Amino acid sequence: MKAKVSWLEGMCFEGVSESGHRIMLDGTNPGQGASPMEYVLLGAGGCSAIDVVAILEKGRQAVTGCEVELNAERAENPPKVFTAIHLNFMVTGRDLSEKQVERAVALSMEKYCSVIKMLEKAVDISSSYEIHPA
């Protein structure tokens, strides 16, 4: 996997992935784009949500929505690394099995989400879930 980050102006940079997708990164708060740490947090949420939906669909669950609320704590002093991240999955669907939702979240956290697996070596990561009818 490759990527490129190019300085635009001020503290604003453009990131381009190997697949050609572009993002704006900004060290100004607030800026023109998310900060690099915000993108790390979004990556964790996106990676795990993809897993949860894929696992539930493979289990023939009628999933109609999935959102992840992420709450991260950071160290007070530089480098201001994440010290804790909590992911709360809100899964919507028709007649969803709580057992299968619980299993999907657990599998993502414990086995499949590469972002979570990488971060958990340095960050306290926890998760929860809610099931909402469609």
UniProtKB/TrEMBL annotation:
Q: Name one Pfam family in it.
A: OsmC
Query: InterPro entries in the record, alphabetically?
Result: KH_dom-like_a/b, OsmC/Ohr_fam, OsmC/Ohrsf
Matches recorded under SUPFAM superfamilies: OsmC-like
On the tree of life, the source organism's domain of life is: Bacteria
Q: Which PANTHER family does this entry report, sorted A to Z?
A: PROTEIN YHFA
Name of the protein this chain belongs to: OsmC family protein
**Source organism (scientific name):** Oceanimonas pelagia
Q: What is the lineage of its organism?
A: Bacteria, Pseudomonadati, Pseudomonadota, Gammaproteobacteria, Aeromonadales
